[in-house]
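Duplicate of #3305? Posting structure anyway:
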C-alpha cells in the first residue's frame, strides 16, 4: 500500500490513526457525505495495533465474528479466533474496497495539535508539514505506545532486547538463552511459540494471571460456504457471541461470585497443563478472577511445564550487560531479553501533543486528576476534539469494535448537527463532564476491578479506574446514539455565542 506525504493546507476533519477507529471513522465520514477529511498515521498501512503487533502467536481473544466491523462482515475468517495476520489483512481489504484510501497519508507523525481560539481551528504540526482542521478526531488508541520497564541497568544490556509490540524478526531465537518479562496477554501468546525453539526460557512473573481455556477451532468448509453465501448466518453467529459475552458484565460490575464457573475452568486449565504441584502453586493467582484481564490459552501452561522453561517469581534487582540479577542475588545469564510489559493506557501519549484553549495539553489536564472526558469522546476546554477509545471506554469482556462504532455514530451526529445549526465549535460543559465522570467512579466502587485485590493496568497513579466501561456495551451505545447538544457549549460560525448548554446535572444512571 503506497502513499504520498503531501498534505493539504486545510481540511474539515483530520483523523489521527488508521486502526479500527481511524478507518471506521473515515468510511462513515465518507458515507455521510463528509468527504473533506484526512487520515494521518505514522505506520506504513492501515491496521494500527494489528499492523504493529507481529510477535509469534499474536491473535485476538475476542471471537472473529464480533471483532470486525458490523458493516463489513468477513466470510474469510479461517478460525473462530482470528490470528493477527488475518485481522491485518481484513482491515487492508476493507480499506481498499471502501474507496477512502486516497485521503490517507502514511508515514506521517502528528507532532503537535494546538487550538487556535482566534480562527477557531486546530493547527496540526506533523512530520510532513502543517495542516489546519476544523475538527480533529483522535483514533490513536490505548494500545499504540509500548511501555518499557524502568529497571536498573536495562540500557546497558549488550544482548538483543525488544518489546513484544516491536518484535525484531531479524533475531534468531533458536538455541538462545531468552528471558521474557511479563505474563500478560502478549506474553502468554508468545511463550508457547518461542519455547519450541529457544535453548532456555526464563519467564519473569510478577503476578500470575487467570488463564481460561481458549475455545478456538478452524471453521469447517460448510461454515465458510455459509458465511459467503448466507449473510444471515454470520449475523446469527455475531449476535449469539455478543449476547453470550454480555452475560459476563454482572460478574464484573456487581456480583463477582457470578464469575465462579470461570474461576473453576481456569483452575482446571492449570491442572490440565501442569502436573508439578510447585509450578501449579506459582501460577495460581491470589486475587479474584476478573480483577485483571482474563486471558485465554490452551498452550500457555504446557509451555511453562517444559524442561527448558523456568518461571521466576523473584523480583528483578537489576539487569547486567549479560543477564538478570534477581532480588535474591541470583544471576541468570541470557542472550536475548523480551519485554512484554504492555502499553501506556492511563496516560495516552497522544494527549501530550494536543493543546486546548488555555494552552495546556490534554496530558497536563489529566495529570491533575486522571484521564477523564465526556462519554469517553469529548473534553471540556478542547473544542471540536473527538477521541475514539477515550477514558472509560475499554472492555474486559467484549469487542472494542462495538464501542468504536458507537463513538463514531456519536461523532457523525455531532458533525451533522454542527452543519445543520451552522456551528463553529462544540465542547462539553465542565458540569456535564464532571457529572459523567463522577458517575463512572461511583459505579467503579462495586466492580471486581476495584474490590478484587489486584493492582492492574486498568488503574492510574491515583488508583482510579479510568480505563474500563463499568456497564453493558448496549448501555454505552444507547447513551451515544445521538449527540446531546444540550450538554455542550456551542458557538456560531460567526464566532458569536448562539447558545449555551443546559448546565444542570443530568442523571446518567
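Output from current build:
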Amino acid at each position: 500500500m503506497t502513499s504520498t506525504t503531501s498534505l493539504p493546507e486545510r481540511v474539515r476533519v483530520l483523523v489521527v490513526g488508521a486502526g479500527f477507529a481511524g478507518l471506521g471513522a473515515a468510511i462513515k465520514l465518507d458515507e455521510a457525505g463528509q468527504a473533506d477529511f484526512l487520515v494521518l498515521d505514522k505506520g506504513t498501512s492501515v491496521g494500527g495495533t494489528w499492523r504493529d503487533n507481529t510477535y509469534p502467536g499474536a491473535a485476538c481473544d475476542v471471537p472473529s465474528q464480533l471483532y470486525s466491523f458490523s458493516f463489513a462482515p468477513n466470510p474469510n475468517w479461517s478460525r473462530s479466533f482470528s490470528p493477527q495476520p488475518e485481522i491485518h489483512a481484513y482491515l487492508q481489504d476493507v480499506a481498499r474496497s471502501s474507496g477512502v484510501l486516497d485521503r490517507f497519508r502514511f508515514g506521517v507523525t502528528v507532532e503537535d495539535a494546538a487550538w487556535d481560539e482566534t480562527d477557531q481551528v486546530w493547527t496540526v504540526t506533523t512530520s510532513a508539514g502543517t495542516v489546519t482542521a476544523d475538527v480533529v478526531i483522535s483514533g490513536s488508541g490505548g494500545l499504540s505506545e509500548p511501555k518499557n520497564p524502568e529497571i536498573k541497568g536495562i540500557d546497558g544490556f549488550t544482548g538483543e532486547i525488544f518489546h513484544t509490540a516491536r518484535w525484531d524478526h531479524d533475531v534468531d531465537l533458536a538455541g538462545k538463552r531468552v528471558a521474557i518479562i511479563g505474563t500478560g496477554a502478549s506474553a502468554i501468546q508468545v511463550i508457547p511459540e518461542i519455547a519450541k525453539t529457544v535453548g532456555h526460557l526464563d519467564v519473569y512473573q510478577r503476578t500470575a494471571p487467570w488463564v481460561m481455556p481458549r475455545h478456538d477451532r478452524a471453521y469447517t468448509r460448510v461454515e465458510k460456504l455459509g458465511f459467503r453465501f448466507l449473510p444471515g448466518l454470520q449475523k446469527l453467529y455475531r449476535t449469539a457471541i455478543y449476547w453470550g459475552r454480555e452475560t459476563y458484565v454482572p460478574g464484573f460490575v456487581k456480583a463477582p461470585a457470578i464469575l465462579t464457573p470461570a474461576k473453576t475452568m481456569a483452575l482446571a486449565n492449570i491442572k490440565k497443563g501442569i502436573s508439578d504441584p510447585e509450578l501449579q502453586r506459582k501460577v495460581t493467582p491470589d486475587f479474584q478472577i476478573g480483577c485483571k484481564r482474563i486471558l485465554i490459552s490452551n498452550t500457555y501452561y504446557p509451555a511453562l511445564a517444559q524442561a527448558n522453561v523456568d518461571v521466576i517469581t523473584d523480583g528483578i534487582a537489576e539487569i547486567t550487560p549479560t543477564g538478570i540479577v534477581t532480588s535474591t542475588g541470583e544471576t541468570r545469564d541470557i542472550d536475548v531479553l523480551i519485554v512484554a510489559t504492555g502499553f501506556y493506557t492511563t496516560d495516552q501519549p497522544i494527549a501530550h501533543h494536543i493543546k486546548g484553549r488555555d494552552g495546556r495539553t490534554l496530558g497536563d489536564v489529566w495529570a491533575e486528576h486522571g484521564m477523564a472526558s465526556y462519554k469517553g469522546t469529548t473534553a471540556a476546554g478542547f473544542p471540536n476534539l473527538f477521541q475514539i477509545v477515550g477514558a472509560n471506554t475499554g472492555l474486559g469482556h467484549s469487542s472494542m469494535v462495538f464501542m468504536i462504532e458507537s463513538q463514531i455514530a456519536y461523532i457523525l451526529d455531532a458533525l451533522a448537527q454542527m452543519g445543520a445549526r451552522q456551528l463553529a465549535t462544540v465542547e462539553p460543559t465542565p458540569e456535564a463532564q464532571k457529572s459523567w465522570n463522577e458517575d463512572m467512579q461511583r459505579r467503579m466502587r462495586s466492580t471486581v476491578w476495584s474490590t478484587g485485590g489486584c493492582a492492574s493496568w486498568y488503574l492510574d497513579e491515583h488508583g482510579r479506574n479510568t480505563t474500563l466501561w463499568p456497564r453493558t456495551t448496549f448501555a454505552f451505545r444507547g447513551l451515544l446514539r445521538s449527540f446531546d447538544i444540550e450538554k455542550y457549549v456551542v458557538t456560531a460560525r460567526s464566532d458569536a455565542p448562539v447558545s449555551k448548554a443546559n448546565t444542570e446535572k443530568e442523571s446518567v444512571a
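Confirmed duplicate; merging threads. The first strand starts at residue 10 and ends at 16. The first helix runs from residue 20 to 31.
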